Amino acid sequence: MKTVLLFIVVLLMIGGSIQGQSPEVVLLKNVTVIDGSGKPAQRNMSVLIRDGKIGSISKQNNFPNAKVINLAGKTIMPLLTNVHGHLGMSKGTTVGAENFNQDHIIKELERYQSYGVGTVVSMGTDKELIFSIREASRSGKVPGATVYTAGYGFRPPLAGGSTENGMEKIYRPATPEEAIRNVNELVAFKPDMIKIWVDEGGIKPEIYRAIISEAHKHGIRVAAHLYYLEDAHLLLDAGVDIFAHSVRDKEVDDALISKMKAKGTIYIPTLTRDGYEFFYGTTPTWINDPFFKASLEPGVFEMITKEDYKNRIVNNPRYQKNKEAYAMALTNLKKLFDGGVLVVMGTDSGAQPVRAQGFSEHLELQLMVDAGLTPLQAISVATRNSCEALGLKDQGILSAGMRADFVVLNENPEGDIKATQSIYAVWKEGVQVSGAVPK
Ligand SMILES: [Zn+2]
């Protein structure tokens, strides 16, 4: 009997000491909260964080055992989610297979995260290494933004002997049968979606119809690179799930909007991608911002500010067309957003040296505002909507029970979206993972 009692006492002591080591409870006080839902900011709030999650957001600030952090004057908003990026493609001013290695990809993930991007989808240009990095990333074994991947995308066959930089693992089926075999090979890696390229010279309808129906048999969604309104209609009829870029040749029609709503098709505008086709032909307002320069790989700043680079952009025969395509993308975003289509944030960052990771996601918010969204709408596109598109049920909104994933800002972006760049700190799962963006 005595032994049993002693045993119980020891157990209680162990229990007590384990409880003493439990993760600390943190209270953020006096903070302005933009919750990601599109609702106006709430001022002077107390955010209780426990076990990596938000316990409560309230006016109550008396929690005896909590570690208190006074964030008076600061604003928090959810981490950004980039549903269209590329990992391991660009390094310095180069694009190529040699950039697809663990060290470089982790550096990219850390850069995304230090800019407040908590999750990135690598859209179809990956190599086999991505699948082990993804597992490590999802289980918190590698730092930085959390990885999602479309694995190896689908492009049309290349003319004999030619290659495309950074696209070495891409499938290039010549027949629907080959496309089905490719999908089945890819499905074994459990991609988070499948990427197809549909453009002038892109894969043909009979091929992508086979890819989409085979992917759907396995419960995997298909995202399409596209440009033309006509392709958008054909892709919708074939059952595509995600438009990975804007429709840029014509204004979207009401039939497209109704079809997208009926099917729940997701729209990723990637406005920065289209802007970068001509932005550096002149000198953009952000060119000397430390927040921008810190996002660039070595040599890129020198590249984009050289006269011959500017001249090449301006003298590109497509220069005027690129500007018009961008303007059309802005018009279509506003139309689709107002029409009730699920718009999410993507930038195509990382696919080219000029598409800077981290900065592009903040510029994308600004461009969405240029298209006519309010700052709060743009933020909810990049947070709540983007998490919804990836099925991340406990992320993208700041409320009780959700993950404590957020950016702390020095300024409130409610009135001026550029304030999302005033990063003071980044928190993931209740822990601060970085401070201001290093200059
Ligand atoms: Zn892309």
Tell me what you see in this structure.
By secondary structure, this protein is an alpha/beta fold. It folds into two domains: 86 residues, Urease, subunit C, domain 1, CATH 2.30.40.10; 310 residues, Metal-dependent hydrolases (TIM Barrel, Alpha-Beta Barrel), CATH 3.20.20. Helix content is 36%, strand content 18%. The chain has 14 helices and 18 strands. Strands 1, 2, 3, 4, 5, 16, 17 and 18 form an eight-stranded mixed β-sheet that branches. Strand 11, helix 5 and strand 12 form a beta-alpha-beta unit. The structure holds zinc ion (ZN). The site of zinc ion has 5 residues, from loops.
Bulk shape? globular
Number of strands: 18
Radius of gyration: 23 Å
Q: Give the domain tally.
A: 2
Distance N to C terminus: 66 Å
Instruction: Extract low-pLDDT stretches.
Output: 1-22
What's the oligomerization state?
single chain
Count the helices. How many?
14
Binned strand content: 15-25%
Cofactors, ions, other ligands:
zinc ion
CATH class descriptor name of the largest domain: Alpha Beta
Q: Determine the fraction of residues in helical runs and give it as a percent range.
A: 25-40%
> What is the CATH architecture descriptor of the largest domain?
Alpha-Beta Barrel
| Mean pLDDT across every amino acid position | 94
Largest sheet: 8 strands, mixed
| Corresponding CATH superfamily of the largest domain | Metal-dependent hydrolases
| Helix/strand structural class | alpha/beta
CATH topology term of the largest domain = TIM Barrel
